[in-house]
Amino acid sequence: MNELKAQARIAKPPARCQIECQISGAAKMATTQGELLVLILSNGMPFGDLSAIIDGLKTSSKSIGSHKRRELYWQAYTDLSSKVAGMDGAANCFLMYRLGSDGEGEVELAELTKRQRGLVGGGCEVLGHKIKPADDPTSKNWCLAFCEDEAPRALEDLMAGEPCIYLTAEGVYVATRYKRALCKGLSGPLKTLKDVEKVVSELAPEKPLKSVSFLANDPPARNSYNVFLAGPSNLGPDLPPMIGHVATTSTSEIYDYFCHRRNSYLIAEAGKLIAQLQTDVAKNQTPIISAGSTKEATIAYKNALMKRVYVHESMKKFVDRVRSDGQVEIFVIAGDVTDSDFGRFGSLVFELFYRVDLTTLG
Question: Which branch of life, at top level (predicted)?
Answer without folding.
Answer: Eukaryota
